[in-house]
Write a structure and sequence with these properties.
208 residues
């Protein structure tokens, strides 16, 4: 079993990584501002579920496929980039004279949760990052490496949940103030669409 001191050190590094600007926390930020903290938290849960997939991929050795296969890496990242571009198009089409998105889409929690999963799973760089990052904190004397990887993945998810959850709560509060104005909602839609398009472009040109 991974020693407590190693686990705590890994947790600290994971928190710092979660605070570092990146596509996932930026995605949470914009969704929370645009739709509310509840929507942001559902996206966070989806992203964390996606991290379970990446953790399992590392434990089973599947992440090595994306590190070694240019075709697999390219195919997955283009799917993710296309999805982000689709989200940008949806945001631009959203009416700004209607009630705030949080009120109109209260029943779409499952869709937001799936959006977080898809956003995370279709980014092959996460698997490759896990493949390079998690094994650094494993040791043969601690037991089965696969079990250690699963444990560290769980710790990383807890850190991500705490950091991203805090971002969702803060951004949701700010967004709640801005969404009271139709003009502000229109500006938010445009900014969010630009952010999504930027994330799509960044993922599309990403290299292994």
């Amino acid at each position: 079993m991974t020693p407590l001191e190693t686990t705590l050190a890994f947790f600290g590094v994971s928190v710092l990584l979660g605070l570092s600007p990146g596509p996932d926390n930026l995605f949470v930020l914009m969704q929370s501002v645009l739709r509310g903290r509840g929507a942001g938290l559902l996206v966070v849960l989806g992203l964390c579920t996606g991290l379970l997939v990446h953790t399992a991929a590392v434990a089973l050795g599947l992440a090595a496929l994306f590190a070694a296969s240019a075709a697999a890496f390219t195919a997955l990242k283009l799917v993710g980039a296309g999805y982000l571009a689709y989200l940008a198009w949806q945001v631009l089409r959203a009416p700004t004279d209607a009630p705030p998105l949080q009120a109109r889409e209260a029943g779409e929690g499952w869709q937001l949760y799936r959006r977080g999963i898809f956003m995370n799973v279709t980014n092959p760089k996460v698997s490759i990052f896990f493949l390079a990052f998690l094994p650094q904190f494993t040791r043969p004397e601690y037991g089965a490496v696969g079990v250690q990887v699963l444990w560290l993945g769980f710790v990383f998810i807890v850190a991500t949940l705490l950091v991203f959850g805090s971002i969702a709560l803060f951004a949701g509060y700010i967004g709640g103030v801005l969404r009271r104005s139709a003009t502000a909602r229109k500006a938010l839609n445009r900014v969010t669409a630009l952010v999504f398009l930027g994330l799509a472009a960044r993922l599309a040109v990403a290299e292994r």
